[in-house]
Amino acid sequence: MPHIVSVLVPTPKQSHLPDALSYWAESDLCAGTLVKVPLGPREVLGIVWHASTPPQEPPAGARTPELKWVSCVIEGFPALSQGWLELVAFSAQYYQRSLGEVALWGMPPQLKNSSAEQIQKRLERWHQHSSQTLGTPTRAASKKRSRASLAQDPVANGTATAPPSSPARELATPPLLSAEQRQALHDIGTNPGPFLLFGSTGSGKTEVYLQAIQALFERDSLAQALIMVPEINLTPQLQARVRERFAPLWGEHSIVCLHSGLTPAQRLKSWLAAHFGQARVVLGTRMSIFASIPRLQIIIVDEEHDVSYKQQEGARYSARDLAVYRARLENARVILGSATPSLESWHHSQASTQAGVKPRYQLVAMPSRIGNASLAQVHRVDMNHQPRKTVFSSPLLTAIESRLKAREQVLIVLNRRGYAPVLQCNSCGWKTRCQHCSAFKVFHKLDRTLRCHHCGQTERVPKACPVCADQDIGMLGLGTQQLEEQLQAALLSMGQELGRAIIIERIDADSTQAKGSLEERLERMHAGDIDVLIGTQMIAKGHDFRRVTLVAAIDVDQALFSNDFRACERLFALLMQASGRAGRDAHLTLARPSEMWLQTHHPKHALFEALKAHDYVRFATDQLRERQLANMPPFSSQALIRVEARTAHAALGYLNELHTQGSGLLQEASGTEPGSSLEDIFLYSAVPMQMQKLANVERYQLLIESGSRAQLQRFLRRLHEPLRGLKKKHPGVLRWVIDVDPQSL
Ligand code: ADP
Ligand code: ZN
Ligand code: ZN
Asked: What is the rounded CA–CA span in Å between residue 705 and residue 668?
């Protein structure tokens, strides 16, 4: 008897289609089953959303109703779990996207874009391969099972390949835990969480993650863990440690990675391993929050403050926030770890001023470094008292030389790549502006080009000013390339004195384009083959460089005066993380404390004072007080409507009209009962985005703020209709998007 099933297909929220479409199916299909369905002229992958409605009368003869038939069911594919479906439902609703978009977003392309036969073949191949590598008989039997009996849980269902009974390798022995690590593990083991693991740089958070996972695995031999990291290629060390710890216990194949750098085939393999339960540990970037992990029992969000957890296109979700939600759904533990937690998480971990209200997150603190290594001493150089155009002040150079003489390593952070941010004609003031963006083209000295870091447009440096023909073109500002050159020159004589070359290397988006070059450089740094590493924020994060004893940050002032209210939080985290790369080896700091140097024109700034004292808590408390006074997140919720248009006129016209309609909605809702009230919503006027023009597209935004998350959500849902309607009226508008909890304004 045919049934009617509702199926999630990739229909965008911006379209007028509903979230799930109905199809006829030959038989009963349970929620989470993968199917192929016709959609317009194409056949697409879909996910059964609702269990089928009771058997229906078959369509009468040739007079087929409007509903189409499911083309086929993907056999041998255990249904996605209820928890997974609920995660999708929540994400779609909260981030204002369609269910289908979110559901299919994280699916491997080889599942999404292949025919049913191809998928079938790939599944078979996967089963064969995974059984070979584990030496257990293939479980391809699942293929034969009727689709009606597909259960929710592939692991319980036996589709998962069992772990090998005896350790494949010698066990990697974990180190003896510090008292703080022991306490942290005890807290995590005996409380429900969510946990904010607030541990100094070098306090051994990774060891806590690994042992928390292991403790759970010892209780449940099929349990799975998800470890999320901000950027996978910056964390080869973590990957290695996870592998070293768990491969001997559960085999090489028990650890898989999920990130956008994988080939489609690798991605499918990892994804299936997680789905079938063979992968015990999934290590991935933000996308992995949507992986199917049916036996998920613990989620780790490492460096939880990192902005890369927020997706910046499509469904703009925060993987960190979803991790907390998913953990609750699946009754799993979740640990957010950082030395500089996001102010949101920090706020959630603090006791409320209202008596009896428990903090949302449980704070687990590890203030000390392993082996009692001391934190870096912070030195500030007042650049107002240095000769103009100084790049490296003399006290900093002296300090660097002293470290290099002792064969220690130095790290220099400058968050601006290229040679000079702008070239300028010294005669008429012409600057190297990008024609397509609201940005300057950056001078790259190696190939003598001007490059726009936003649209990629590249051109040769003109011999003379295109306006006045004067050849006197000068440089403004400083990039990593120039820093490298200046330091080479400054350390030349020292190299001669020491009778060895001083090796200086650079890590930024330019120097690491070639595949493997980043890894290679990091490895050489770890091996001690590099004396000074210069780079952007890429070098400041997470690395456990053992012989770095001096870190310097050059030219950090810009962020102090940014329009974005989160700029100070970011700068503080960056500098704190950077300083955390120094002095991680207790033996080295025992002899001489490590150093963090700041060159600034505002040495007395409160941010630097807090940094000098390594006082995250003071910084966070100050910032939160300011945010509370100004009613900014986390004391209010925000959403942005972002619009891209051919002209500024079209963008503004669209948003201004939206503003009017939105205000109308607010007015209508006034005086209604609490369940539909919108009284705590504030609509700001439309303004250009910081980067107003990008690749010839005009970008504007409208900020919405509310003291009530629920009201904001309610209001956003009502805005879809005007957003879609107005689009037709304003053909110059290319696209609109809602960004809930935006991370940059
Ligand atoms: P964090 O992530 O907190 O900055 P890591 O987890 O990278 O710190 O640990 C810092 C260093 O200390 C690493 O080299 C790690 O191997 C080592 N370490 C961690 N725990 C211990 C311990 N209990 N005993 C000895 N060394 C440890
Ligand atoms: Zn000129
Ligand atoms: Zn550009």
From this structure: 18
Distance 205 CA to ligand 1 centre (A): 7
Q: Which two tokens mark 351?
A: 């006791």
Q: Do domains 3-150 and 637-740 have the same CATH topology?
A: no
Residues 6+ apart with CB under 8 A from 286: 228, 230, 308, 309, 310, 311, 317, 319
Q: Where are the alpha helices (DSSP H) in 299-412?
A: 319-330, 343-349, 394-405
Q: What superfamily does domain 373-418+479-630 belong to in CATH? A: P-loop containing nucleotide triphosphate hydrolases (3.40.50.300)
Q: Where are the domains of the chain?
A: 3-150, 179-370, 373-418+479-630, 421-476, 637-740
Q: CA angle, 222 as apex, 275 and 75 as ends, to 5°?
A: 30
| DSSP category for residue 552 | E
What tokens were used for 404? Answer: 């290099």
What is the C-alpha to C-alpha distance for residues 327 and 193, in angstroms, rounded to an integer? Answer: 10
Q: What angle do CA 423, 517, 454 make, to 5 degrees?
A: 35
Fold for 179-370, please state it.
Answer: Rossmann fold (3.40.50)
pTM more than 0.70: yes
Task: Please tell me the predicted confidence (pLDDT) of residue 63.
Answer: 44
Give, using CA atoms, the residue closest to atom 12 of ligand 1: 204
Question: Which tokens belong to 388?
Answer: 């103009």
State the alpha helices, DSSP H only, in 449-561. 480-498, 517-527
**Number of residues that make up the chain:** 745
Give the residue from 251, 80, 216 showing the smallest Cα distance to 159: 80
Domain 3-150 has CATH 3.30.70.270: no
CB 58 within 8 A of CB 1: yes
Give the pLDDT score at 139: 38
| Domain covering 637-740, topology | Alpha-Beta Plaits (3.30.70)
Q: State the distance from the centre of ligand 2 to the C-alpha of 466, rounded, in angstroms.
A: 7
pLDDT in tens, 493-529: 888 888 888 999 998 888 888 888 888 999 999 999 9
Question: Which atom of ligand 1 is the closest one to the Cα of 206?
Answer: 6
Tokens of 3: 């049934």
CA of 207 to the centre of ligand 1 (A): 6
Taking the CA of 436 as reference, the closest ligand is: 3
Give which of 246, 161, 235 is closest to 212, Cα–Cα. Answer: 246
35-60: pLDDT as tens digits: 999 988 888 999 999 766 665 555 55
Tell me the backbone φ, ψ of residue 85, rounded to 5 degrees.
Answer: -65, -35
Percentage of the chain lying above the pLDDT 70 cut: 92
Band of the pLDDT at 90, cuts 50, 70, 90?
Answer: very high
Q: Are 683 and 666 in contact, with CB atoms under 8 Å apart?
A: yes
In eight-state DSSP terms, residue 232 is G
The answer to whether the Cα torsion of 382, 384, 387, 392 is positive or negative is positive
* Residue 154 pLDDT level (bands cut at 50, 70, 90): very low
**Residue 198 confidence (pLDDT) above 80:** yes
Q: From atom 1 of ligand 1, which residue's Cα is the shortest distance away? A: 202
> Percentage of residues in the chain with pLDDT exceeding 90?
53
CA distance 699 to 651: 7
- Lining ligand 1 with CB less than 6 A are 175-178, 181, 199, 201-207, 370, 544
Phi first, then psi: give them for residue 719, nearest 5 degrees. Answer: -80, -20
CB burial of residue 541 (10 Å; 0-12, 13-18, 19+): buried
Q: What distance in angstroms lies between residue 244's CA and the mean position of ligand 3's atoms?
A: 44
370, 545, 579: residue to mutate for ligand 1 pocket, most atoms within 8 A of CB: 370
Return d(Cα 89, Cα 708) in angstroms, integer: 21
pLDDT at position 15 over 80: no
Atom 5 of ligand 1, residue of closest alpha carbon:
204
Residue 317 phi/psi, 5-degree rounding, is: -90, 160
DSSP state of 610: H
Which amino acid would we find at residue 424? Q
